[in-house]
């Protein structure tokens, strides 16, 4: 941190109230803790990026939509802390999605799907879009077949890709955000690393 910047640390417990420069969060009883640390301020102005503007978030944090792990309480806590919380709709369990979406209490969240599972239940995409999510995150397969409906809805498409070729396809299909996934992400994509 140089003299032009200062680091501001925040810690908010969702067992109580928290007042901070990134928002006032009151989610007592959820038992979720969100820590936003080292948000860089430049000359007293909050850090802003193209990604943050696109997703309309005040903190550069997007939670991973891990299937059955990224539930409604976590997604809501991340979003209400200024980031973008994502539900992990991965395997397409509609009952789980209903329950977890209702837990968010109307927080502005997104949802993620594993594309090869979404192919088995394509109606889940329409179901998610009807809830007007902040973004749709697609992973582990091609966005083709889903991207057009998402793009037409005006909701940002976040595409997780495992190769440059996949990234080019996702961009050509209308993805707003590309997440490059390497083997260090749990070995899910073979031997391609994003770390050089």
Q: What is Rg?
A: 17 Å
Number of strands: 10
What is the succession of H and E elements? EEEEEHHEHEHHEHEHE
Q: Tell me the overall shape.
A: globular
The biggest beta sheet reads: 5 strands, parallel
Distance between the termini: 25 Å
Going across the major beta sheet, what is the strand order? 6-7-8-9-10
What percentage of amino acids are in beta strands? Answer: 25-35%
Keywords:
7 helices, 3-stranded antiparallel beta sheet, 196 residues, globular, disordered N terminus
Describe this structure in words.
This protein has seven helices and ten strands. It has 196 residues and is α/β, with parallel strands linked by helices. The strands form three sheets. The protein has a five-stranded parallel sheet with strand order 6-7-8-9-10.
Give a short overview.
This protein has 7 helices and 10 strands. It is an alpha/beta fold.
Task: Set down the secondary structure blueprint.
Elements: E1 5-13, E2 17-20, E3 23-26, E4 33-42, E5 45-46, H1 50-55, H2 72-80, E6 86-88, H3 94-103, E7 110-114, H4 115-118, H5 123-130, E8 136-139, H6 147-153, E9 157-161, H7 164-172, E10 177-180
Parallel strand pairs: 6-7, 7-8, 8-9, 9-10
Antiparallel strand pairs: 1-4, 2-3, 4-5
